[in-house]
Each structure stands twice: as C-alpha cells, then as structure tokens.
Amino acid sequence: MEAYVTLTIENEVGFIEFFHPNRNSMPSDVLSLLEQIIIDAGKNDDIKVIVLKSGGDRTFCAGASFNEVIAIENEISGKQFFMGFANVINAMRKCPKLIIGRVQGKAVGGGVGLAAAADYCLATRYASIKLSELSIGIGPFVIEPVVSRKIGVTAMSQMTIDAETFFSTEFAKEKGLYSEVFETVEDLDEAVKTLAEKLASYNPEALIEMKKVFWKGTENWNALLSERAEISGKLVLSTFTKMILKRFR
Question: Measuring CA to CA, which residue among 181, 211, 9, 175 is closest to residue 98?
C-alpha cells in the first residue's frame, strides 16, 4: 500500500486520514500534504469540525521517517526536514475549526505531537506513547511546546528522559493528553463520530472563538518551532547521532 492523506466530509465533519505503510511514519511529502489539507479544511465552509486519524488498526503514528533522517547531509536540509512537523502543528494550531484526534494505536515522537496538537483527543487502550528522540541523539525539540502545553513540563520531561519506555494510555489520560480511552477501535470510532457531529451542530462562531481561547499565548510559535527545527537539524548531523543512526540502516 502507498502513503496517502485524504479528506472526506460527512455530516459537516471533515475526516482527515493519513497513512504510511511503515507504521504510519511521516516522510516530508506526507507531512507537507497533511499540512495543506488541514489548511484547506479550515477554509472549507462545508466543514464545521475536523477529525484527525490515521489508517490501519495498529500504530497511530511512528513519528519522523528514519530513512529521511538518516539521509540528512547538511543543516539546511536538516532544518527543512524537522520543519515538517512544525508546519503541521502550526496548521492545527491556527486552523479555525476544532480538531478531534482519534488515536487507535501507539504514538511515538512526532505522533505524540500530533495528538497533543488536537483540541480534544480520544484513544484506545492500545495507544501508549513514547518520546524516543533523546535515545538517538537529538530530542523532541519541535514538539516540546505542544506536548508540554498539553501534559505539563514535568510529564514531558519524564517521557523525554525515559526515552526508551512506552508510557501507558492510563498515564496519557491522567496527564491530559487523552480525554477518554476505549476498549476497542469500534467503541472509539462511535465516540468520535458522536462527539464530532454534536460539536458540528453548535454555533460555528462560538467554536471559532473558543479555538482562539484554547491557543492563546502561542502566537510566537511560528518563530519558536522554526528555532527548534534548526536545533534538531544541527544535532542530527553530530558524530554521536550519526553513529546511532547507522544501526538503523
């Protein structure tokens, strides 16, 4: 199966689905397409609420594409690569529509960032989370602002330092990443559909104004996430990180 990003509209709910055959990892072209579709959905008058989901019934998102990370050869291309997640997070932040995250499976690195950038997130009991970046010689610099904003600096620090551990869905719910956790994907989908259609029936102007309130104080994130992408772009070229990445070739 080939990678894709799609948008379907049902009962004024825009369902954005991304997929990659390698555990829904995110290469640059998929991230760029996802960013643009989020922007387009935000401008579409037929859509009142957005649901962000991934294809398949296992991993929600395995984060950045390792093949692309390994191929980075200079700071310019390094920053450009890490701007992929920065641009998606900023698109979600600035989108005037509320975004519901539907997390059916494990989320790693940038996948945790996508869940945290949703305005409201529902998951299954299989949706454990991990910030593995420090273990390969970089760090979750780009996603840190959105993850810390959602679960707090203490929990983010714990996950960053314990970089090889998957934290449970109970942990994610307790810290505020997930609002509800369901036993099955079927239960999750029913809850997502019910919530999204309910929200779509509310005053759209009120939803837009609440979205602004939710993201107050993040107006500097275009510059901030760009700075963070530059840090990651430099670190990925370090001797230490290059040695680690060779193991994944």
Answer: 211
List beta partners, residue 51. 15, 100
**What are the DSSP E strand ranges found in 71-195?**
98-103, 107-108, 120-124, 129-130, 180-182
Angle among Cα 192, 198, 201 to the nearest 5 degrees reads 140
Which range of residues forms the domain containing residue 148? 4-184
Q: What does each C-alpha distance from 224 to 2, 107, 140, 179 come to in angstroms? A: 33, 23, 13, 27
Bridge-partner residues for 180, per DSSP?
122
Of 28, 13, 105, the closest CA to residue 5 belongs to: 28
- 101, 107, 108, 109: CA torsion to nearest 10: 10
Tell me the CATH number at 174.
3.90.226.10
**Residue 33: inside a domain:** yes
Amino acid identity of residue 143, one-letter, is I
Pull the structure tokens for residue 235. 């670190």
What does R_g of the chain's alpha carbons equal in angstroms? 17
Model confidence band, residue 27 (pLDDT cutoffs 50, 70, 90): very high
The count of domains in the chain is 1
pLDDT, tens digit (0-9, with 9 covering 90-100), for 93-123? 999 999 999 999 999 999 999 999 999 999 9
